[in-house]
Design goal:
This protein is an alpha/beta fold. The protein has 2 helices and 16 strands. Helix content is 14%, strand content 20%. The strands form 4 sheets. Strands 1-3-6-9-12 form a 5-stranded parallel sheet, covered by helices on one side. Strands 7-10-13-15-16 form a 5-stranded mixed sheet, with no helix packed on it. The protein is globular. The relative contact order is 0.13. The structure holds coenzyme A (COA).
Length: 194
């Protein structure tokens, strides 16, 4: 436990600040962040890419599959599960928690938080730059989230969704799935190495 805290401290104090390719020391920066995250995340696949300045809190319940990427300046709450081969642009925010706010007589600050809702991102999804993904969302495998989107509802597999709130504008290729198509969750990071 103490060792894990030291790794997390070293990640934020040093490794997160190191540059990413193509800048000098960028390859080393990505390598060091990957090694550290393997010791921090709940499940961490092979060959992940953690770009500069990624924040994931303690990271203890983050899952990420093989060859997936956390983009520059990404911000992840707890309980985010990312599949394999996931691409992520810069400044992506993934949220899993909301404040309680129903009682107008009490400051929101003192009303506590709602139950945390995990976010699932399926294999081969591409999350565009500056997107925001709200608590409880599942992004299907192969889906694309356009730059600057705010994702408020689940996105089906292989859909292209854009805007605020994100709407599906089309499917990739000829693949069309109805709303009852099972959204793959087994692909999150189940086969990743610890
Ligand atoms: C989502 C995306 C992949 C769509 O590409 P595309 O299928 O070629 O889409 P098009 O450019 O043909 O646009 C289709 C429509 O969606 C709209 N649109 C495309 N991207 C949009 C976005 N991010 N937000 C809002 N609307 C968008 C277009 O204005 C167009 O609308 P129209 O039909 O009314 O004219 C692309 O626009 C995008 O956002 N890429 C992310 C880039 C990125 O974040 N890169 C970071 C490096 S990983």
């Amino acid at each position: 436990m103490l060792m894990k805290k030291i790794i997390i401290l070293f990640y934020y104090a040093v490794a997160a600040k190191l540059p990413q390719p193509p800048f000098p020391l960028g390859v080393f920066g990505n390598w060091l962040r990957r090694i550290l995250c393997q010791g921090i995340f709940l499940k961490c696949g092979k060959n992940i890419v953690v770009r500069q300045n990624v924040f994931f809190g303690s990271g203890c319940d983050i899952e990420i599959g093989d060859n997936s990427e956390l983009g520059l300046n990404a911000y992840l709450n707890r309980d985010v599960k990312i599949g394999r081969e996931v691409l992520m642009g810069q400044n992506v925010t993934i949220l899993t928690t909301n404040h309680e706010f129903e009682n107008p007589d009490i400051q929101i600050h003192y009303q506590g938080r709602r139950e945390r809702k995990p976010v699932y991102i399926g294999d081969d999804a591409w999350i565009g730059a500056n997107s925001i993904i709200l608590p409880g969302i599942t992004i299907g495998c192969g889906a694309i989230i356009g730059a600057g989107s705010v994702v408020t509802k689940d996105i089906p597999p292989f859909a292209v969704a854009v805007g605020n709130p994100a709407r599906v504008i089309r499917q990739r290729g000829s693949r069309v799935f109805g709303s009852d198509h099972p959204v793959p969750r087994s692909n999150t990071a189940d086969q990743a190495t610890d």
